[in-house]
Specification:
CATH architecture: Orthogonal Bundle
CATH superfamily: lambda repressor-like DNA-binding domains
Number of domains: 1
Radius of gyration: 15 Å
Order of helices and strands: HHHHHH
Shape: elongated
Number of helices: 6
Oligomer: single chain
CATH class: Mainly Alpha
Amino acid sequence: MSLGEKIKQLRTKKEMTQEDLAKKLFITRNVISKWETNKDFPNIDSLKELANVFGVSLDYLLNEEELTTLAIENKKNLELNKNLIYAFLLF
């Protein structure tokens, strides 16, 4: 089961609308819709909040492929941040 399917399943189990969940996470309903249809992927902070709202672990939310994707994205972001810091220090 994909992350989007799990989010939708957990949300409906708690009898929450997309709007209800969006308000809890301080984001728009459209973002929730994109997550649930796997058109977008939450960042790590949003994943932590989702796990907290639903009372589940990150391991439950993410399958192996999604964990790999998240790790790759985090590595790219860390590399970008490192490069920005170096550029800032040089100037």
